[in-house]
Amino acid sequence: MLPPVRRVILYGLAGGALLALLKFFEYQYFVRAYTSEIYGGLVAVIFSAVGIYFGLHWARARHVVVIKEIRVPEGGSFVLDVEKLKALGITPREHEILGLIAEGLSNREIGERLFVSENTVKTHSSRVFDKLGVGRRVQAVLKGRELGLIP
Amino acid sequence: MLPPVRRVILYGLAGGALLALLKFFEYQYFVRAYTSEIYGGLVAVIFSAVGIYFGLHWARARHVVVIKEIRVPEGGSFVLDVEKLKALGITPREHEILGLIAEGLSNREIGERLFVSENTVKTHSSRVFDKLGVGRRVQAVLKGRELGLIP
DNA sequence: CGGAAAATCACCCGAAAGGAGGACGACCGG
DNA sequence: CCGGTCGTCCTCCTTTCGGGTGATTTTCCG
Questions:
Q1: pTM of the model
Q2: What are the strands, taking DSSP E only, across B3-132?
Q3: Which residues of B touch A59 (CB under 8 A)?
């Protein structure tokens, strides 16, 4: 998207041009054929549309992040700790592989389930082990569970 | 917020009222005092503002919700299922090895901790795997936890 | 559009794990 | 004494894991 200042200027210029255009037609033709109601309505419709358009765009530009804190009662359902996931820099794919490792699957089985090669699974799992600071998959499962990354 | 349909109707009514109002003033006073450029500009500004307002409002539903979890330390007490242990024919030594496997230790580390050779650990773990009906240590940990053999 | 991040795959190597089979001593109960 | 169980240890073999490096492609975002 364009930066706000330039967008405002463009917006103003477009409005001015439209006004000039309308004024031109008004003096040439419209002023006798139609009342100014049509003129006002036209302007209203066009500027409403433009306003709505930019309103939507401006709203889309700012993505609001709402941090919701949920207390997990004992033995409650598992809630993924997104914060820790980001803090450790674990990607979604790596997290997915970690989950499948925790289910007791071998690298080959994981590859078959995800339709990727065993080598890919090994790459992902290696990175997860690095990020978790462990060297074995059982430890990775333990650590992941402890950190709230897997149920 | 109002439901969309009612909002649109209100919007249309307000627009109509505004037009009527402007028209009234136009015939009374404005038409002679100012050119219709003022009229058009006024309408443009007002409807742009209204359009932007509603555009922002319609788009306000866009939220990125990040769920942050706060973990409450679990006080669940583990009770060993001795019955299942006997039912599966798991010996005390095998059960001990299973516990150490669940801690993420390698066979060599288990051997060092128990002052036995790695081969012995492998024998025990193999037997545990047989009795649990699994083929991998992560699965053994899962099964053991599920059966109440390890915390 | 261009760069960063993510995902994918490959190859090599050493270590770990697992399977199959055998062996030996201790202990315990019939 | 003898069979059964348990714990210990071994060899040989195959598979699996994990680490490292490098590369390509896809995806995302400013």
A1: 0.58
A2: 63-70
A3: 55-56, 58-60, 62
